[in-house]
Write the structure tokens for this entry.
Amino acid sequence: MLLKTVLLLALVAQVLVLENGLLRKPPMGWLAWERFRCNIDCDKDPKNCISERLFMEMADRLAQDGWRDLGYVYLNIDDCWIGGRDAKGNLLPDPKRFPHGIAFLADYAHSLGLKLGIYEDLGNFTCMGFPGTTLDKVVQDAQTFAEWKVDMLKLDGCFSTHKERAEGYPKMAAALNATGRPIAFSCSWPAYEGGLPPRVNYSLLADICNLWRNYDDIQDSWQSVLSILDWFVAHQDILQPAAGPGHWNDPDMLLIGNFGLSFEQAQSQMALWTVLAAPLFMSTDLRTISAQNMDILQNPLMIKINQDPLGIQGRRILKEKSFIEVFLRPLANEASALVFFSRRTDMPYHYLCSLGRLNFTRSRVYEAQNVYTGDIIRGLQVTTNFTVTVNPSGVVMWYLYPIKNLGTPQQ
Ligand SMILES: *[C@@H]1O[C@H](CO)[C@@H](O)[C@H](O)[C@H]1NC(C)=O
Ligand SMILES: *[C@@H]1O[C@H](CO)[C@@H](O)[C@H](O)[C@H]1NC(C)=O
Ligand SMILES: *[C@@H]1O[C@H](CO)[C@@H](O)[C@H](O)[C@H]1NC(C)=O
Ligand SMILES: *[C@@H]1O[C@H](CO)[C@@H](O)[C@H](O)[C@H]1NC(C)=O
Ligand SMILES: *[C@@H]1O[C@H](CO)[C@@H](O)[C@H](O)[C@H]1NC(C)=O
């Protein structure tokens, strides 16, 4: 009986995730930080400084270049927008860089079918030293964001204590809810607690946040991508079950279109983030992005997989001595996404595998579509050997789906 009660409570706890109805699929959009940082010198660099001009130009690109229609709808401001507080303590944007204010920018985004995200920091200051949201300002700042018609808040955690974060993040969740405006809530909380239990309670996070940053900020390098990936894989038993519709792990922004990744590495980040059911926040200059990088980011099958309605985060299931790793994400309609990832540094590797090796057991015929080339691989059975050729630091990604049953299951 006690066990039954405990199980029942566990079930109830699982269902009690953040009930603002938002982000049933990982959010997609554009976030300023990784590419544009805290560049606030608009005299020297008017085109790239953190200003309403930058956000309006990115909004135009999102709307006109196919991004919005594929799901990239969030236009998200990061640090360095704040000018101060007025006499009543209300937040104000920098008057020179955001002369029309944030409500104007939200209206502009909405007029283009986009959503506006904003940034604050639970603490004395933002990470770059602008006025933060101290505990006594949480309710007031939530109301300000709602009045401006903001659609998402990323709440960072610089200049705060463990105790202030434990009080402040749930308080902000309640304050956002009390505004009556649906505002997706992105919490940097776990990243400031080492990302792991017992300091991080992932079921509590799912109760109060729609997404959360678990680990370090991404930087524009392959080494940074690998360090984040390695950490997510090392702790996948903890992280994988924490994600689901309405509540996502966030390994941070996509670097694609910037300077640090090769073509293969850009394809790899996109594929790996997609199997991890990660938010797809680009942080690149959409005014100058190349066609090749656009193809990676706008791949319709990739996006369909990322946005799969089951919202199950994938895992690394196999690590070969050959330095090939295989990731799998279960998808709706008994499909799966498979990523064959090479950690090699020599030459394209011909990796021999079978679905049986990946522990598929059912007597079925499968078909796969190569997500990047579009090629169809037919007639795959559990025992069928196949070879994928994976480039150094690259991936081969498959969308795999059953075609027909072959009678009784093998086990
Ligand atoms: C925040 O500011 C208060 C008041 O100046 C100070 O007492 C406190 O130590 C500061 N907290 C942090 C984490 O810096
Ligand atoms: C506030 O929370 C309640 C209860 O979880 C939920 O039904 C409601 O949709 C939330 N409202 C907003 C604006 O998030
Ligand atoms: C984690 O938070 C949940 C509330 O969501 C609570 O029921 C549970 O006791 C917490 N777990 C721990 C270990 O503190
Ligand atoms: C397949 O199952 C075996 C036995 O449960 C397990 O040891 C192995 O790690 C699994 N391999 C994969 C790729 O899931
Ligand atoms: C598949 O490859 C394995 C490993 O090389 C080999 O042992 C097996 O005989 C092959 N199976 C078929 C059907 O070719």
About this structure: Residues 34 and 69 are 24 Å apart (CA to CA). The chain has a mean pLDDT of 95.
